[in-house]
Predict the structure.
Amino acid sequence: MKLSTSFVCQECGYESPKFLGKCPECGEWNSLREIKIESKALKISGRKESASVKKLSEIKLEEKQRLLTGFSEMDGVLGGGIVKGSVILLAGDPGIGKSTLLLQVSLNLAKKSKILYISGEESEGQIKLRAKRITKETNQADFFLVSETNTDSISSIVQQLEPALIIVDSIQTMESENLSGLSGSVGQVRYAASQFIKIAKNLNIPIIIVGHVTKEGMVAGPMVLSHMVDTVLFLEGEKFTSTRILRSLKNRFGPVDEVGIFAMEEKGLAEVRNPEQYFLGKKDENSPGSVLVATLEGSRPFLVEIQALVVFSKLPMPRRVTSGIDYKRLELLLAVLQKHCRLPLDTMDVFVNVAGGLKLADRAADLGICLAIFSSFKNIPLPKTVGIAEVGLLGELRTVPFLEKRVKEAKKLGFKNIFSSSEKSLLNVLNFISK
Ligand code: TYD
Ligand code: MG
């Protein structure tokens, strides 16, 4: 058996044929580790056609066959279901619900097709228990579970079973004896992934690979796989709120701007078809400090409530506390309100919160945030008010993408006071509403 070696940076996954003291990709010192790969290539039966040259006109477009997951929210994100033979990375924070989502998908699909769920994290018993929590009927005959972490033995299991879909939970627990290095190390993660990709392509079986990724660790860890797989999905949300958003960061077979919205409930994840019911707090119309913004997730507009609380500060450096919006953005908006609208906010503590635990990076929320702050500061309620505009440093209102779509959504839900960039400046809007 021949052994080949290569050196892989344990920080970023950079691979080099020779040893280097410093990684040229991420600049870390002493991060390259030697990995030995037995060149006993993974043997998988399957035809390997030699490449032939074709004319463009001769190539037939075949509609890729897709498996439907049983969640229209997830199918939408994938561009119409799971493409046969594709490899999907499902990334997200630990505990966010990746295993739950995939278990539900497996339970849905096992009614019709053979599913293989490979778990390196939980025992078969634990998974059964979770399945019982999600659904009453857990005797799906075609749902196969295996608690295994050795990638080398997995390929033979797959060949015997020939499932319609394989779930690998998670890539960090998989390891091969061909490689020195602990499971979860960049080398093992990459190697395991490359084996699964071979299986998927040669046997035309789709594989969903789970990867735990924290926001801080976007570069290291399983995100080094992004360029190897066909699709990267990200499941996100705050642990202590129930909203979960599934988005695609990369998709060879579909759009990348679609999102699926779910809620984590007692019996697993439930699809949320009308996001408004989650993001509009059930509020008293007449309490000051609440204004709506119309945001887009993917190509989908929906309304979200912004709440602000402005109180006198006893501190030399008044507090600015945000949840769901960028802290720096709030500071900027406060400075604009102070300078161009003459609100003395430098003596005030300001708290801003997005209802429903959603994260807003959308600039179109600027106006709504300013209006909520103004409303709390002046103690005037702004019922049925929606702000849709970006606020510039000069206090001007800028137009945002898909304005008509957002306005239409707000009107559809019965909101009458809609302010947008046609008002020209923030001051104009504030003057208008204080009349
Ligand atoms: P899990 O799917 O294990 O997360 P991941 O695989 O991404 O690490 O999610 C576990 C969390 O979900 C846990 O905190 C409990 C919660 N949960 C529910 O709220 N309802 C349910 O029906 C299930 C199965 C889990
Ligand atoms: Mg899990």
About this structure: Residues 92, 94-100, 130, 133-134, 264, 266-268 surround thymidine-5'-diphosphate (ligand 1) (CB under 6 Å).
